[in-house]
């Protein structure tokens, strides 16, 4: 199964403060901005497209959110790398057969329709990796 780089998630304290760099220096375009108050997510998101890839700026909605804990423990910066797959269920099954463990409670569909799950960083030598698929678009690179 093909895994295509979909986006990079960047932990920031403030979307407004971070946006200037991505829009003015990297010449990105703000594609979407939303807030997810779902328990265990609790994040403000700004989706920025650069010439060829997407970046998600992720800011905590409150001081107890998972993103706030991440920033407190590891600081601002890269939070995760996301790979798009054609069939998320098959990708999960294939990875499990190879011994990959997932953060099971992260399997969900976000408010923009992206299905996703995070791989346990113990299986990736420390990097948080998201696998995702989109129900409303063709996931192939054709």
TrEMBL record:
PROSITE patterns in the record? VOC
The alphabetical list of record keywords is: Metal-binding
**GO biological processes:** L-methylmalonyl-CoA metabolic process
Q: Show the Pfam families listed in the entry.
A: Glyoxalase_4
Metal-binding: is it a keyword of this entry? yes
The VOC domain sits at 4-134
Give the Gene Ontology MF terms in alphabetical order: metal ion binding; methylmalonyl-CoA epimerase activity
Give the UniProt family note. Answer: Belongs to the methylmalonyl-CoA epimerase family.
Q: Supply the name of the protein.
A: Methylmalonyl-CoA epimerase
User: From which source organism is this entry?
Assistant: Psychrobacillus psychrotolerans
